[in-house]
Automatic annotation (TrEMBL), chain A:
GO terms for molecular function: lipid binding; proton-transporting ATP synthase activity, rotational mechanism. NCBIfam families: ATP_synt_c. Key component of the F(0) channel; it plays a direct role in translocation across the membrane. A homomeric c-ring of between 10-14 subunits forms the central stalk rotor element with the F(1) delta and epsilon subunits. One of its GO terms (cellular component) is proton-transporting ATP synthase complex. The keyword Transport applies. It is found in: Cell membrane; Membrane. This is ATP synthase subunit c. It holds the Pfam family ATP-synt_C. It comes from the Bacteria.
UniProtKB/TrEMBL annotation, chain B:
It comes from Seonamhaeicola aphaedonensis. It is a single-pass membrane protein. The chain crosses the membrane at residues 6-27. InterPro entries: ATP_synth_B-like_membr_sf, ATP_synth_b/b'su_bac/chlpt, ATP_synth_F0_bsu_bac, ATP_synthase_B_chain. Component of the F(0) channel, it forms part of the peripheral stalk, linking F(1) to F(0). The b'-subunit is a diverged and duplicated form of b found in plants and photosynthetic bacteria. F(1)F(0) ATP synthase produces ATP from ADP in the presence of a proton or sodium gradient. F-type ATPases consist of two structural domains, F(1) containing the extramembraneous catalytic core and F(0) containing the membrane proton channel, linked together by a central stalk and a peripheral stalk. During catalysis, ATP synthesis in the catalytic domain of F(1) is coupled via a rotary mechanism of the central stalk subunits to proton translocation. Residues 36-117 form a coiled coil. This is ATP synthase subunit b. Belongs to the ATPase B chain family. Keywords: ATP synthesis, Cell membrane, CF(0), Coiled coil, Hydrogen ion transport, Ion transport, Membrane, Transmembrane, Transmembrane helix, Transport.
UniProtKB/TrEMBL annotation, chain C:
This is ATP synthase subunit a. PANTHER family: ATP SYNTHASE SUBUNIT A. Keywords: ATP synthesis, Cell membrane, CF(0), Hydrogen ion transport, Ion transport, Membrane, Signal, Transmembrane, Transmembrane helix, Transport. The chain crosses the membrane at residues 140-158, 202-223, 229-247, 292-313, 320-348.
């Protein structure tokens, strides 16, 4: 494990974190706007978050 | 990445694959198929029952609409009948009135005619009676007058006097 | 609302613990503290590994163990089966059919003789020969247990439908909404009304399997199946194979000759799309593995912090934090099962989609 790789992984994790945060925030707004579509929004949110999470893990394990 | 696959164990992979695939096939045969089939059957049943209820409701509505229509027709017919009856009644009353009027007029005319004839007859009788009475009276007066000579003359004179005046 | 309330104490705790760990820096007996830390670290690493015996707990400083041995099955110039008690928890060399084996970091290596040693290369990796290992390890036992539990539970549920005129009874009443959830919220929206039936068996099995296995990982028995890359690789591989074999013309067309883009782009996109078909199940594998592993590491580290703090405030606070995290892990156990199933269904849906919406 070299320092640049760790820093890179950290950057990816920060990016993934921001991405998931944005997804969560947008989902909250969407639910507030359309409470009747909560189920659909949650599903889409989880799928998108899971996909980004995969990138984060890939970065972590690539180190 | 190396660390990730360093922990890879072929034996565990093998057992997992065998057990998991066996589980999928066993559960498919003994659990998922019967469960999903019964759930499907139940849902189908509920759907069918709901549809039947909906159909029954529709039929009821149709029936009610028919009833309404029939009722309306019946009402219209009754109305028409009533109107006809009223018309007939009115006409009958009218006719009866006319007839009565006619009859009354006839009767009046007859009565008038009878009265006229009766009147004429009465007048005639009265005339004849007056004539006979006056003849009698005249007879009596003449008899009386003629029994007295002086009076006879006087009469003749007065008559004559009158005659000349005429 | 509930989440909001739950998160506030967690942040507060985290802050407190951060301060306390700073304060802890200048504690006098630093050496014993670092010893304890390495011990906990090793314990966690050990906990995450598979093992050849069913060890429930150790006592007397790890001298005595409570549990039972499991069969070791090796293929090394012929089948070799012996009990894992021969290893004496990795302390001695086991002999079977003229060959000698020794445990090293939870793996079996072949050694030269009864007094053979593991020869370590770079990064503590043993350079000894590794026999093909099909042993019934602790994780295999748990997989078999889950197999039995699921088979018993769901076949009973299926029988209760028959007996009860199409209505579930007992556990079926609890399980039916979950089965229907998988069907109505996972399979039908992602795969489509017409084609979902083929995939229901796999989706339901994988959902319940991952969920139950994750839940077992949270029990104090200390078995965690889904933090073995072999297990998640197996599941992801099955998803990949189903996706590949059910892919229709339209699916392959979208991979090799993407419609609606100019020809040079098609040539560039083809390898990317092809790689994407492999990356998708790969991410599936990594996600499940990493989530469960990370959850276990964090949870056990916080439990370990109870012993490192060694005072009533810190220990009780880390206990509380461990409790809250344990509840969070319960959610993660179900969430990861859900996500694995949803993404599998999504990939199947992509493979069988036939209308051209471009």
């Amino acid at each position: 494990m070299e320092i640049p790789a760790i820093v890179g992984a950290g950057l990816v994790v920060i990016g993934a974190g921001i991405g998931i945060g944005k997804i969560g925030g947008s989902a909250m707004e969407a639910i507030a706007r359309q409470p009747e579509a909560t189920g659909k929004i949650q599903t889409a949110m989880l799928i998108a978050a899971a996909l980004i999470e995969g990138i984060g893990f890939a970065a972590l394990f690539a180190v | 990445m190396e660390e990730l696959f360093g922990g890879f164990s072929l034996g565990l992979f093998f057992w997992q694959a065998v057990l998991f695939l066996a589980l999928v096939f066993l559960l498919k045969k003994f659990a998922w198929k019967p469960i999903l089939d019964s759930v499907n059957n139940r849902e189908e049943g509920i759907k069918n029952a709901l549809e039947a209820a909906e159909n029954a409701k529709k039929e009821m509505e149709n029936l009610q609409a028919d009833n309404q229509k029939l009722l309306k027709e019946a009402r219209a017919e009754r109305e028409a009948m009533l109107k006809e009856a009223r018309d007939i009644k009115n006409k009958m009353i009218e006719d009866a009135k006319e007839e009565a009027n006619e009859a009354a007029a006839k009767l009046m005319a007859q009565a008038q005619a009878t009265i006229q004839t009766e009147k004429k007859a009465a007048i005639l009788e009265l005339k004849s009676q007056v004539a006979s009475l006056s003849i009698e009276i005249a007879e009596k007066v003449v008899q009386d007058e003629l029994s007295n000579k002086g009076k006879q003359e006087k009469l003749v004179e007065s008559m004559l006097g009158e005659a000349t005046l005429n | 609302m509930r989440k909001k309330i739950a998160f506030k104490p967690v942040t507060l705790l985290l802050l407190l613990i951060t301060f306390m760990s700073f304060a802890k820096e200048d504690v006098k007996h630093e050496e014993s503290g670092s010893d304890l830390k390495t011990e906990i670290k090793e314990y966690i690493q050990h906990h995450l590994l598979d093992s050849y015996d069913f060890n429930l707990f150790s006592y007397d400083n790890g001298e005595k163990h409570f549990g039972f041995p499991l069969p070791v099955i090796l293929w090394d110039n012929g089948l070799k089966v012996f009990s894992s008690s021969k290893f004496h928890h990795g302390e001695t060399v086991a002999e079977a059919g003229g060959s000698y084996y020794k445990l090293h970091h939870g793996k079996i290596y072949k050694v030269d003789g009864p007094n053979g040693e593991i020869i370590e290369g770079d990064h503590h990796h043993a350079t000894n020969e590794k026999p093909l290992d099909f042993s019934i390890t602790k994780n295999v036992v748990l997989i078999a247990m889950v197999f039995a539990i699921m088979f018993f539970m769901f076949s009973r549920m299926a029988k209760s439908y028959k007996k009860n005129n199409g209505m579930p009874k007992g556990t079926g009443r609890f399980l039916e909404p979950i089965v229907l959830y998988v069907r109505d919220e996972i399979a039908i929206p992602n795969i489509g009304e017409k084609k979902y039936k083929k995939y229901m068996s796999y989706l339901l099995t994988v959902f319940f399997f991952v969920w139950i296995v994750n839940l077992f990982g949270l029990t104090p028995i200390g078995m965690n199946v889904t933090n073995n890359i072999a297990v998640t690789l197996c599941l992801a591989l099955i998803t990949y194979l189903i996706t590949t074999f059910s892919g229709n013309k339209n699916y392959w067309k979208h991979i090799f000759w993407m419609p609606g883009v100019p020809v040079p782009m098609k040539i560039i996109l083809a390898p990317i799309e092809l790689l994407g078909t492999i990356i998708k199940p790969f991410a599936l594998m990594i996600r499940l593995y990493a989530n469960i592993t990370a959850g276990h590491v964090v949870l056990m580290s916080i439990i370990g912090m109870m012993f490192i703090f060694n005072n009533w405030l810190g220990s009780s606070l880390s206990f509380l934090l461990a409790f809250v995290l344990g509840i969070l892990e319960l959610l993660v156990a179900a969430l990861q099962a859900y996500i694995f199933t949803v993404l599998s269904a999504l990939y199947f849906g992509m493979a069988v989609e036939d209308h051209d919406h471009h």
